Each structure stands twice: as structure tokens, then as C-alpha cells.
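User: Protein folding is very new to me. Would you mind checking the protein record under this note? It all follows right here:
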Amino acid sequence: MQNLAPIALFVYNRPQHTERTLKFLQQNELAAESRLYIFSDGAKTQQDEAKVAEVRSIINKTEGFKSVKVIERLENAGLANSVIAGVTQLIKDYGRVIVFEDDLVTSPHTLTYFNEGLNYYQNEPKVMHIGAYMYPLKAENLPQSFFYRAATSWGWATWDRAWNHFEPNIDTLLNQFDNKKKAAFAIDGTMNFWKQMMEFKNGKNNSWAIRWYASIFLKGGLTLNPSQSLVNNIGHDGTGVHSGINDIYNVIINPKPITEFPKVIEENPQVYQIVKNFLTNRKGNLWDRLKRFLIEKLNK
């Protein structure tokens, strides 16, 4: 496969997660032909310095790729600024990029899926993002991959033509939403995407991902997704910047390659409904929610 996208991996202070993420990435079929760029953020506090150093000793020994370049920041930029700067740089140099954070395990076919999708939809302006994660949907007879409005951030890829529309300014984004758009953006009110936008505005989160999804949504863009996840997030153990302790989104990774991509460039209404139903019912009954709440409190 020609013209493989570079891989951006963003790491911070989780050596065990970083090691696992790299181990699974190395087992990808296209690893040996792919260029890997590892962005290591500087320590935010003195307590983080030892863990950051431990992560750096791991990433500086990384092999199994066509090339490995480690970019170590002296200061702490934070996840959002690191991702935006790293993605922007690689997009400028290569015109496309595949993005991972340090808490994702992949299928051996994940890089193949990304590169095939990037090639297949390169000249389709409406397709703006490729995601590798999908909720644990129980429905049968789903297509192998489909178009959807929301952008997932657990393993993703994009092109320069799409990233050029990324709008980091929250006010510029918020000003383009009316009530109808707010409801559609939040998957008919089943997701807290609008709440995340307001929390960013009020300084309660620093998410690049919600601004990226909003940028795609406001352009009428679509995201390509597998119906069975090609990644699993191992960061829901309380160690992540934005991740609590949660098993709702835990998935069994698809062991097979994706060989079918949608030809019609529009959101799949059947899968949209299935995802919406999952999101509506995902939190379980009152007892399940109470149990999760107590576990999270005890682990803080």
C-alpha cells in the first residue's frame, strides 16, 4: 500500500499504558512500513517528573516501525495543545495523519483500515474524519463500516483538507448553533456533547475533541466508523486526564480486517438509530449507576 499516513502518538505520564499501546501498534500489519512520531508532553508538576522520565525511557527504545521520531517538550502544554500542534505539523508535512493517545490497544488491522479509508475517501470533501472505536453495539447484520455524524477520539485519522476546517475558538463555534443544531449535535439529546461545549467555554474541560467534532458537524461533515471496534481504551482506570473509571465503553476488538467501505456518502440512518438506542440505554438501571458512582468515589 503506497502513501502510508504517519502515526502521531501522544504520551504523558503512564508508562504501563504507553508500553501496551506501543506493543499492540507494533503488531499491526503495516507497522514496519509506517513512520511513527511520538509526542511526549513535559511534566505538569514535580510529582509527574519521574513518570514522564519513565515514559521517555520506553519511547526512546521503540522499534518495529519504518522510522521513529520522539518529540519531547520541556514544558507542559496539556493534551489539547499537544494534539492540535502535533496533528497540525504532520498534516502540513504529509497531508494526512493517524492519531493515537497512550491508552489505546489496537487490532493488527487498525492501521490498514485507516490507510485504506484515507485513500478511498481522499477526494470526498464530506468525509472529514475516520474513527477506529465503536460502542459495543449488539445489533446483527450491520455493515462492516458506516458513516455517522459524531467524531470519536480513541484512534482516528484525517486529511489536510478536513483539518483546515478545525476551529479552536469556542465562541466562533457556539455562535453557529441554533436549538435545532444543538439537538442534532447531541444525537437527539442522548449524548452530552453540548454540555461538553459549555464546559469548555466555562473552563471546566480542555477538550480538543469536542471542538473537532463541532467543526465537522458545522461543515455538514461525516465520519467513517467500523461497526465493531478496532481499538479499546485501557485508560478508564482512573489514570486518564479526562477518563473516569468506567466499563460502559469497554469493547471486544474486531479480530478481522475491514474489507467493505460504504459507497453512498451519507449518514447510515439504520446505524444512527442503533447507536442512539445504545446511548439511551447505556447507563443501565438505577442500581448499576449507583454502583458505578460509588466505585468512582472510592477510587478518587
Observations:
- The longest strand covers residues 35-40.
- DSSP finds eleven helices and ten strands in the chain.
- The beta strands are 7-11, 35-40, 67-72, 96-101, 104-106, 127-131, 145-148, 156-159, 222-226, 231-233.
- The longest helix spans residues 79-94.
